[in-house]
Design a protein that fits this description.
alpha/beta, TIM Barrel, binds NADP nicotinamide-adenine-dinucleotide phosphate
Length: 338
């Protein structure tokens, strides 16, 4: 049977056409508890069959392990996939469990070579600055990234967790194809300034953690009790203790809308973020992360769900009521810099 494939959207003004939902690959190697290589490989293949072409990784995910894990899949399907990776969260040699933000030119040049080596490809399709180092002017960082484009190491440029002002300054140096930031029913900071700027500049929005790191699916209720000790979500204030209990109650309208569609809450969360594209007038390509082929099917099927105005109104108040920050260390979020 030929699988039904998802619609497409363009990355930036001159970027490639990609499936309107991408695949977040971080959890295949890192951050979210025990990994399963066989299931992850099956998830990658199933995604491609269903029209998912944008695959998201970063050098920081598992200290390069995620890029290495994805390499055989990318090489087997090089002409069908759009590879997105990132630099900017460096691992200090004295403490591999920590991340420091680096945007200096020597670091970027080292990072791109290391990513190309691990991925074992000639060119990266979309290269993101993962986080902004505030002491380095964004124009300088994007200037180095633009050199990588001219040298043929990178095709398109992206920025993660930037402010609207940073995006505008970057675009003066080189066209930016995509901004990747957290965007979900629980995290809507970027709608005030970043999204309007992206629309004006012709930049595609790539929402990360569109399922609220899984919380919006109901797959865990309290990170402290439901997830393994090494799971990154145990450090995130909104997913444990009193905050998690308060936030779980916010899922009630998501469940009600899901029931009306014969869908899952996760599918409603994905349909909602996808539909922000129509609301704000710009292309939106969410990258839900999963390591399971069945969930890839469930998540891609959400691209066919259209929420009514009444349903959107029911979901509208949720984000403003969420208890707890996105990160324990909010220097990792752009919102405080607006
Ligand atoms: N730029 C940045 O700073 C940044 C930050 C975070 C993430 N990212 C990128 O964005 C991608 C997605 O974000 P994310 O992984 O943090 O969060 P997410 O997509 O909101 O949620 C992922 C979690 O949800 C679970 N899940 C996925 N589909 C599900 C379904 N249908 N039903 C129940 N549970 C489901 C996954 O578990 P299973 O894997 O077990 O299915 C995983 O634990 C990442 O993979 C990464 O590439 C970027």
């Amino acid at each position: 049977m030929t699988p039904r494939t998802i619609p497409t959207a363009r990355l930036g003004a001159n970027g490639p056409e990609v499936g309107v939902q991408g695949l977040g690959c971080m959890g295949m190697s890192f951050a979210y508890g025990p990994t399963d290589a066989d299931a992850s490989r099956a998830a990658l293949e199933r995604a491609l069959e269903l029209g998912v072409t944008l695959y998201d990784t970063a050098d920081a995910y598992g200290a390069g392990e995620n890029e290495k894990f994805l390499s055989p899949f990318f090489r087997a399907h090089r002409d069908e996939v759009v590879i997105a990776t990132k630099f900017g969260l460096a691992i200090p040699p004295e403490d591999p469990s920590r991340r420091i933000i680096r945007n200096d030119a020597p670091y970027i040049r080292e990072a791109v070579e290391a990513s190309l080596r691990r991925l074992d490809v000639d060119v990266i399709d979309l290269y993101y600055m993962h986080r902004r180092e505030l002491t380095v002017p964004i124009e300088d960082t994007v200037g180095v990234m633009a050199e990588l484009v001219r040298e043929g190491k990178v095709k398109q440029l992206g920025l993660s967790e930037v402010t609207a002002a940073e995006l505008r300054a970057a675009q003066e140096v080189h066209p930016i194809a995509a901004v990747q930031s957290e965007w979900s029913l629980f995290s809507r900071d970027i709608e005030a300034q970043v999204v309007p700027a992206a629309r004006e500049l012709g930049v595609t929005l790539v929402p990360y953690s569109p399922l609220g790191r899984g919380f919006l699916t109901g797959s865990f209720a309290d990170a402290a009790t439901d997830l393994t000790a090494d799971d990154f979500r145990r450090q995130q204030p909104r997913y444990h203790g009193e905050n998690a209990a308060a936030n779980a109650a916010l899922l009630e309208p998501v469940r009600a809308v899901a029931e009306a569609h014969g869908a899952t809450p996760g599918q409603i969360a994905l349909a909602w973020v996808q539909q922000r594209g129509a609301v704000h007038g710009l292309p939106v390509v969410p990258i839900p992360g999963t390591r399971r082929p069945g969930r890839v099917e469930e998540n891609t099927a959400a691209t066919a769900i259209v929420l009514s105005d009444e349903e959107l109104a029911l979901l509208e108040p949720i984000a403003a009521k969420v208890a707890g920050d996105r990160y324990a260390d909010m220097r990792f979020a752009s919102a405080g810099r607006e």
